[in-house]
Amino acid sequence: MSKIFKQIKKDNSPKTINTNFEPIRVMHYKNKPSKILFENGDDIKSVCLSCQDPLCINYEKNELPKFKSFSIENDNRVCPTNSITWHADDSNPTINNDICIKCGLCVKRCPIGAIYMDEKEGVIVNEFIETSKNKDIINQNKELDFTKHIDYLKRINHSGVLFKETDKIMDEIYQKINYLKSEIDFENILTRNLLIETNINCSITRQGDVNTRMDGLFNLNKYTSGVLEIEFGPDILDTPRNILDNIAVLSSRYEIKYENIIPLIINLSLPNERSEYWQVIADIAKVLNIKINSLTIGALMIINWNLKEITSKINNFYIDSNTMSIKEKIENIIDRKVNLKQDNYSVLSPKK
Q1: Which ranges of 199-296 does DSSP label H, i.e. alpha helix?
Q2: Above 90 in pLDDT, residue 2?
Q3: Which H or E run contains 150?
Q4: Is the pLDDT score of 208 beyond 70?
Q5: What is the CATH number of the domain that holds 223?
Q6: In this structure, is residue 136 part of a structural domain?
Q7: Beta strand pairing call for 122-125 and 84-85
Q8: What CA–CA distance (Å, rounded) separates 251 from 254?
């Protein structure tokens, strides 16, 4: 007798914030749970609401922009390592910190800050309602439209810092990335998601598409587009020339004026000072008047950990053989000095 296998349905009973309380801000702290601040002066620790469509796990359709005539990757997962999962018999998502790279994407995605980062313990989903006050504010209200409730909560302002960079933490992150970067599309999905969380409307090209050479595209407004090259490996010297090809394609085939195209290279690490990369970048700027911007994955993480956006600053990351460091540019964005003394992986400044 044949058996029919049915998908296990999650018994998901989401919690809500009592409509008698008006949340005005989520405050993030280093190494401890976030707090929700209310208009009446109350505050409580953020706790997982067991969302029906958890933003910490998947992007919504409207968050992944489409580009006409381009084959866009539809993989909507937030975590590039699949370290955040939600099993059918659990009431909340769980995080496998053995493969988590502490990028902070799931932390930033939670509308009420119920996920936080701890330097020693890793990334944690806070699921415990600890006090009677918490229980008065956070409870189950089955009559409330949860989708509309989440849309409302997504508009709450967030302040503070998700995580603070150190050489030790960055070394740990880069060691994991170097281990994982050979996995299919890992580096592209990580880059896309970090850019989206800095408020850049970015999409990457579909895995296996041989007709589109460029790694990704982004839009700033109706007049300005961007082209993206992503390279975590040894082929970094090819990226400036590749991005020129991409600009030519956008300009000739899709009639986008080249002066309205922002070229951006995302590297795992900045090339060393003696690399030909820097002179090629300078020559392109001098001869063609095209300034190619350079950023690293680590720099994008620091920006996200500090809850900053770079929409208006994405064209300010031009560096070449005369100035090879993005450290000052990142410090201007996060409004403080970066706490990396050794910078072993050339996140902000190249090695000699």
Answers
A1: 239-253, 276-288
A2: no
A3: helix 146-153
A4: no
A5: 3.40.91.50
A6: yes
A7: unpaired
A8: 6
What does the DSSP 8-state code read for residue 318?
B
Q: Looking at the structure, tell me whether residues 118 and 79 fall in a common domain.
A: yes
Task: Specify the DSSP element, H or E, that contains 160.
Answer: strand 157-160
**Cα dihedral sign, 335-341-345-346:** positive
Range of the domain at 120: 16-160
One-letter amino acid for residue 68 of the chain: K
For residues 125 and 195, state if they share a domain. no
CA-CA distance, 175 to 145, in Å (whole number)? 44
Q: CA distances (Å), 300 to each of 24, 61, 83, 122, 330, in order? A: 27, 23, 20, 19, 9
Residue 212, φ and ψ in degrees, nearest 5: -115, 110
Task: Find out whether 292 and 341 touch, Cβ atoms under 8 Å.
Answer: no
- In this prediction, residue 68 carries a pLDDT of 73
pLDDT at 3 over 70: no
248, amino acid identity? A
Residues 12, 48: Cα–Cα separation, whole Å:
12
- In this structure, the answer to whether residues 180 and 298 fall within a common structural domain is yes
Specify the pTM. 0.93
204 and 237 together in one domain: yes
C-alpha radius of gyration, the chain, whole number: 22
Reading the block at residue 168, the tokens are: 């030790």
| Residue whose token pair is 């006409």 | 68
Task: Tally the domains of the chain.
Answer: 2
